[in-house]
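Think of the structure tokens as a kind of shorthand, similar to the way a musician reads notation: each symbol stands for something richer, in this case the local conformation of the backbone. In the example below we present two proteins back to back. Begin with the first one, reading the sequence and then the tokens, and try to describe in your own words what changes along the chain.
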Amino acid sequence: MGDRHGVMIRPVCLADLVSLEELGEAFAALERARRERAIARNRLMAVRETLDGVLDEAFRRQSFAPIEHLFHREEMALGGYDRAVRQMAQARQRWNAVLAAFAHECHVMGSGPPPVGRLN
């Protein structure tokens, strides 16, 4: 396709810009991170519920010796949740960057070809 000056202008193809594969991968990573964060949050809440129940019983009995392992489980669950939150933030940042690039490319595609003076 040529313009009125005879300059060949190749149509812009989405595959030349932000690939649909990259967009899909970023979205899939974000969804995976959301699921992993939810699983980690549920795991942490379950451990804390167990710990709360055991602590109530320990206060009642005035015996705290056998619950040390629950504090360790809580620390591990909290560490897993913190990692999941960081992964979620990274996935969200990647998704937002891909979306911003995609939006910019859509804007550029919608604005038409560059002026003839800008062509090399």
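Once you have a description of the first chain, move to the second and do the same.
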Amino acid sequence: MRIKLCVLCLMFCSSPLMADQNKLFIGGALGFWSYDEQDSSGFSPISLEGVVDYEVLENLDLRLNVGVGISEETNISPVGDETTFQIDSYAGVYIKPKLTIDNITLYPLIGYSTTALDATFNDRKLSSNSSGLLYGAGVSYNFSKMKRITVEWRQQADTANYELSGFTIGLMVAM
């Protein structure tokens, strides 16, 4: 799964449409997530993601992100059941309409995501894959035309059984 996500990212970045100066931003972000299910205590996984933004129009970007989990969390229930949880990987592609005022840019996010999660319950491995609507909002501070820092909230996965949402903090550089 991780190899497929990296290949997708490379194909997107190598597109001839990306040749315009200062229209392509590449960066990374650290994600702080909240995983919640109906009948269990939640988890707080952390991820690392690569991000590509391409300015399609002055007030509209196309974004691609690919992330992998970098932390694993274990909870032990009052009856002794042990559950270990982590994000395996995720990818999203979405549109980002934006409003820039001075050096600050505000934007909503809407698109499509796929998310793979791994868990172990009492030594039994479990995996979950979901895909669907991705939405959120963000703000970026533009240090210059070449660098910006971003803070975003995203709903990464929302199924009938669980929800994965959180904040990312990232740095983007113009290519």
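Compare your description with these statements about the second chain. Helices lie at 2-13.
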